[in-house]
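ok trying again, last paste got cut off:
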Amino acid sequence: MSVQRYAVIGHPVSHSLSPRIHAAFARQAGIALEYSAIDAAPEDFDAVLAEFAAEGGIGANITLPHKTRAAQICNYLSEAAQRAGAVNTLIRTATGWQGDNTDGMGLVRDLTDRHSLDLRSRRTLLIGAGGAARGVAPALLDAGIGDLYIVNRTAERADALADVLAQPGRVHPRYLNDIGNLGNFDLVINATSAARGGDALPSLPINLVAPRGAAVDLSYGEAAVPFLAWARSARAHDCIDGLGMLVEQAAESFQRWHKVRPETDAVYEMLRNRDAILVTAD
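nice, full thing came through this time. structure:
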């Protein structure tokens, strides 16, 4: 049986649980594959990806900080990737890379199916406007959230994301410094990579979360600790990290590659029970 070669490419990437997730999925499906983690600095991404392809790589997950660059090098983009302007899933074809984005679908599936959240009409705050935010924003709008406010340290990036989403009556870019004047939100999502990079979380008002509101960090493990600590102090009803999203987006990628969607609950529980993973509270 020939072994198929896949990878997750990011910087840093040694922390990634994706190799464990895809190994578990492969065991379910009886597929022989090699799935590794490849670290690539931003200036090396194109060369690393080309080397991966030359050595037989046929599919890759792309994580921070390469998602927008990955979209630029693709010969073909799915509708989700086009709307996001970011790619987290690459598929090798005879004519080059096809790009897709499963982040948004993974987040919505985790929030609605696993955590039983009704996203409809929720006034939503998205903190961050990079590749992670771009990946989830279209799917959140499709899931029926109410107004979406986007704040970012660099206001121009928030404006650019709002322009891409093209729903001016519903999507509102704002300066991060104005966050205290925006009222409270039914859903607050941290899409920044601040904690992962060792930077401080932006200062957030304690009254930012509405009663029975939810706070979600797209990171998991130690990187999610600061935001979730703030969320608990803000009395968010639901405090959720990104582990479930990670598993669900991986399942969508796996389905794109292998034409079968794996079962995710057992894999999620396996990872959640690891001591290194933060257990979130309802």
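cool. The domain at 4-102+246-272 is CATH 3.40.50.10860 (Rossmann fold). The mean pLDDT is 93.
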